């Protein structure tokens, strides 16, 4: 049995080259999988951070002071619009008044203005009660 050592060395070199290529391919695939996994983790972290930031912003905006400020601004806008409408209605009633409908139109204008007055008084009373409750007072009491 005559074994050619050169042939065995060549075969061993070729086998080790093939194994190196196979291991390189496997390592390359593993690296790609690891990159994809890391990218997914990064994307998830970014979405979680975005959700946390959104939740924090919502919490800040849900604070009573901020809500009260937004409500006050909207209330002022609505009140201004309502007052403009009332002024236009009163002006229209005044310009279109004739002898027969003057009393009726004045009664309508008076009713509108009384409604606005009672609305403002009630709103201010609610605000005063809320402020007094926050300060631990009831209306009519003096702070110590």
What does this structure look like?
With 144 residues, the protein is mainly alpha-helical. It folds into two domains: 1-62; 64-134. It contains three helices and no strands. It has helices at 5-61, 64-95, 102-134. The longest helix has 57 residues, at 5-61. It is rod-shaped, with a radius of gyration of 41 Å. The model has no long low-confidence stretch (mean pLDDT 80).
List the helices and strands and how they pair.
Blueprint lengths: L4 H57 L2 H32 L6 H33 L10
Helix pairs in contact: 2-3
Note the run of SSEs as H and E: HHH
Give a short account of the largest sheet: none
Domain unit count: 2
Low-confidence stretches: none
- The number of E-state strands comes to 0
Find the structural class using helix and strand composition: mainly alpha
What is Rg?
Answer: 41 Å
Determine the mean pLDDT: 80
Distance between the termini: 116 Å
Beta-strand residue fraction:
under 5%
Instruction: Give the fraction of residues assigned to helices.
Output: over 70%
What is the molecular shape?
rod-shaped
The number of helices is: 3
Could you name the key traits of this structure?
mainly alpha; 144 residues; rod-shaped; 85% helix; 3 helices
Summarize the structure.
This protein has 144 residues and is mostly helical.
């Amino acid at each position: 049995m005559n074994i050619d050592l050169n042939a065995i060395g060549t075969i061993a070199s070729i086998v080790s080259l093939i194994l190196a290529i196979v291991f390189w391919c496997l390592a390359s695939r593993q690296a790609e999988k690891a990159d994809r996994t890391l990218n997914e983790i990064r994307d998830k972290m970014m979405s979680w951070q975005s959700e946390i930031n959104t939740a924090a912003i919502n919490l800040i905006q849900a604070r009573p002071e901020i809500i009260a400020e937004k409500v006050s601004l909207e209330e002022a806008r609505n009140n201004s619009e309502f007052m403009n409408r009332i002024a236009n209605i009163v002006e229209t009633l005044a310009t279109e008044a004739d002898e027969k409908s003057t009393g009726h139109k004045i009664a309508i204008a008076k009713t509108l203005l009384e409604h606005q007055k009672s609305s403002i008084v009630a709103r201010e009373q609610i605000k005063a009660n809320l402020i007094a409750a926050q300060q631990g007072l009831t209306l009519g009491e003096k702070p110590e």
